[in-house]
Amino acid sequence: LNERWTHEHPAYQEAAAYINNQCFIRVVEQLEGLVVAWLFELAKANLMGTYYNMCKNISKAITQQSVAVHTALDKYSLLAPMQNPPCPCLEYRDVAGYGMLSDFELLEQSWHDITEKSWRIPAN
């Protein structure tokens, strides 16, 4: 390096944009994992023949995951407008309305577009 980078230096701005994008991708992937786990817990809660104690444990897990989803959504909403182009902000009620993985549009914004994976299709 021959010169010290300042905030106006093109290389500094490029590096800052890259770091911001990587942070956003990490938050999106964390949110994805939480929502997918939450959807599976909700599906498990609706299974026939689930005993009372198991239902209590599933309910507790769903509550804990809901808190984690809220936290991840706050992080996502903080970084989404700073992306180029800006990503839509999400609210908990939007995520809570997802009934299946195919409804979860956030999965398309991640590093790996898992909406194209064969295992996410209900027929598989």
Please characterize this protein's 3D structure.
It is a single chain. With 124 residues, the chain is mainly alpha-helical. The chain is 56% helix and 0% strand. α1 (10-45) runs antiparallel to α2.
Secondary-structure map:
Layout: H1 10-45, H2 52-79, H3 92-96
Helix pairs in contact: 1-2
String of helices and strands: HHH
End-to-end separation in angstroms reads 53 Å
Question: What's the helical proportion of residues?
Answer: 55-70%
Given as residue ranges, the uncertain stretches (5+ residues, pLDDT < 50) are: none
What's the pLDDT, averaged over the residues? Answer: 77
Structural class: mainly alpha
**Helical segment count:** 3
Question: Regarding quaternary structure, how should these chains be classified?
Answer: single chain
Residue fraction in strands? under 5%
Q: What's the alpha carbon Rg, rounded to whole Å? A: 19 Å
Shape: elongated
Summarize the structure.
With 124 residues, the chain is mainly alpha-helical. It has three helices and no strands.
Question: Features of this protein?
Answer:
mainly alpha, 124 residues, 56% helix, single chain
